[in-house]
Automatic annotation (TrEMBL):
<dbReference type="Pfam" id="PF00072">
    <property type="entry name" value="Response_reg"/>
</dbReference>
<dbReference type="Pfam" id="PF02518">
    <property type="entry name" value="HATPase_c"/>
</dbReference>
<keyword id="KW-0418">Kinase</keyword>
<keyword id="KW-0597">Phosphoprotein</keyword>
<keyword id="KW-0808">Transferase</keyword>
<dbReference type="InterPro" id="IPR003594">
    <property type="entry name" value="HATPase_dom"/>
</dbReference>
<feature type="modified residue" description="4-aspartylphosphate">
    <location>
        <position position="67"/>
    </location>
</feature>
<dbReference type="InterPro" id="IPR003661">
    <property type="entry name" value="HisK_dim/P_dom"/>
</dbReference>
<protein>
    <recommendedName>
        <fullName>histidine kinase</fullName>
        <ecNumber>2.7.13.3</ecNumber>
    </recommendedName>
</protein>
<dbReference type="InterPro" id="IPR036890">
    <property type="entry name" value="HATPase_C_sf"/>
</dbReference>
<dbReference type="InterPro" id="IPR001789">
    <property type="entry name" value="Sig_transdc_resp-reg_receiver"/>
</dbReference>
<dbReference type="InterPro" id="IPR004358">
    <property type="entry name" value="Sig_transdc_His_kin-like_C"/>
</dbReference>
<dbReference type="InterPro" id="IPR005467">
    <property type="entry name" value="His_kinase_dom"/>
</dbReference>
<feature type="domain" description="Response regulatory">
    <location>
        <begin position="17"/>
        <end position="133"/>
    </location>
</feature>
<dbReference type="GO" id="GO:0000155">
    <property type="term" value="F:phosphorelay sensor kinase activity"/>
</dbReference>
<dbReference type="InterPro" id="IPR036097">
    <property type="entry name" value="HisK_dim/P_sf"/>
</dbReference>
<dbReference type="InterPro" id="IPR011006">
    <property type="entry name" value="CheY-like_superfamily"/>
</dbReference>
Length: 401
């Protein structure tokens, strides 16, 4: 790889550079020439110069190798600051035999991970650099994974808070309506109460609808608890059939009135999903909810929502992939809105509390899984949202014995 003294053009993004710090220019040049054939080498002549370079190009640097004896501020001071400000960087110290006590103190204090003694042994130095580089890359990947999982949890929590608000608001509305109609009966009928009905069976329907929504809200909360519990496991995946996911949504979603009769499912092309039920359950519930709301806004003669498992090509030139498609025969999506869906928060139901975050959340989940989402619609012809899943060796379910 190329050697790059400080001040030269930056090393290509994605490389893992070794930063050599020594106040002797010849030592820096020798190091870059000796090890530049295997590593990307950056050099600095002082602690301040090294810290300035790290401020500009810290993401390129994986390993810091510094001499101990330098004027103004020594190598241990540099290692201490780097440990605090750039924790992903592996820290190595070069010292003469006379500095050995200081070097050992640096090791004991955790400022340095290894010591190399002058003059540097080429074979030993290469091996130490390789190990330090691998350690730094591993730490950087683990940190990125933690940050990505934390971001997913934050997004899921925000989406969950929005989704739970709707069923809970409906429950509050039903309870408020029954409270307004509640009347205590005369003393002779102690323990009895009366709730006025505008039509037969109305109160029972409100109670049943409130219970469905409370159950649905509970299922959403349970889903988030699973997500939070498994977020930091190294492997939280489990085998899940797409048909099982569809069945869970069909059984647990709080359909209103005759909405459950609008839903049909085609599960013939079943496959295994890459992950567990939690986030995918939220995604599928969101798509079903959007389809039902679209139908309610402009009810056709025979409203219908279809959840189909299929294999399809997401774009020309790409291989066929397993997919779940949720389609409806509602009014469709205006072309100007369709272009922005899954790219920015946009909704046609702002007056009903819509935020436009639902499809963005679905897109984030699918992207995290290595899949994609496609929305197609024609005004007056309904809408179809397709979730494409990455190809896996076990995408097809095993045959029952």
């Amino acid at each position: 790889m190329n050697s790059n003294p400080a001040g030269d053009s930056p090393a290509p993004m994605g490389t893992h550079a070794i930063l050599m710090v020594d106040d002797e220019p010849q030592a820096c040049k020798w190091f870059a020439r000796m090890y530049g054939d295997e590593f990307t080498v950056l050099t600095a002549g002082s602690v301040d110069e090294a810290l300035a370079l790290l401020e500009q190009r810290g993401q390129e640097v994986a390993v810091l190798l510094t001499d101990y004896a330098m004027p103004v501020r020594d190598g241990v001071t540099l290692l201490s600051e780097v440990r605090q400000r750039f924790p992903h960087v592996a820290r190595l110290l070069v010292s003469a035999y006379a500095d050995k006590d200081v070097a050992m103190s640096a090791v004991n204090q955790g400022h340095v991970e290894a010591i190399l003694e002058k003059p540097l042994d080429e074979a030993l130095t290469r091996q130490v650099l390789r190990e330090a580089l691998a350690s730094s890359v591993r730490r950087a990947r683990e940190q990125a994974l933690i940050e990505r999982r934390a971001a997913t949890l934050r997004e899921t929590l925000g989406f969950l808070a929005h989704e739970v608000t709707t069923p809970l608001a409906t429950v509050r509305g039903y309870l408020a309506a029954m409270r307004e109609r509640h009347r205590d009966l005369p003393e002779g009928e102690a323990g009895m109460a009366h709730i006025a009905q505008q039509k037969p069976g109305e109160v029972l329907k409100m109670i049943e609808a409130a219970q469905r929504r409370a159950d649905y809200a509970q299922s959403l909360v349970s889903t988030f608890v699973l997500t939070a519990r498994d977020a930091y496991r190294r492997d939280a995946s489990e085998s899940l059939l797409a048909s099982d996911l569809v069945g869970a949504v069909r059984d647990e979603y709080p359909f209103d009135g005759d909405e459950a009769q609008w839903l049909t499912c085609d599960l013939a092309a079943d496959f295994r999903l890459p992950g567990r039920r939690d986030l995918l359950y939220l995604v599928l519930c969101t798509l079903v909810k959007n389809a039902l709301l679209a139908l309610r806004s402009d009810l056709p003669g025979e409203p219908g929502v279809l959840i189909a498992l299929l294999r399809a090509v997401p774009a020309p030139g790409l291989p066929e992939q397993a997919a779940i498609c949720v389609s409806d025969n509602g009014p469709g999506v205006p072309p100007d809105v369709l272009q922005r869906l899954t790219k920015e928060p946009v909704t046609t139901r702002a007056d009903a509390g819509g935020s436009g975050m639902g499809l963005l959340f679905c897109r984030r989940v699918m992207t995290t899984l290595g899949g994609s989402i496609d929305v197609r619609s024609e005004p007056g012809q309904g809408t179809a949202v397709t979730l494409y899943f990455p190809s896996t060796d076990d995408s097809k379910p095993e045959e029952a014995p």
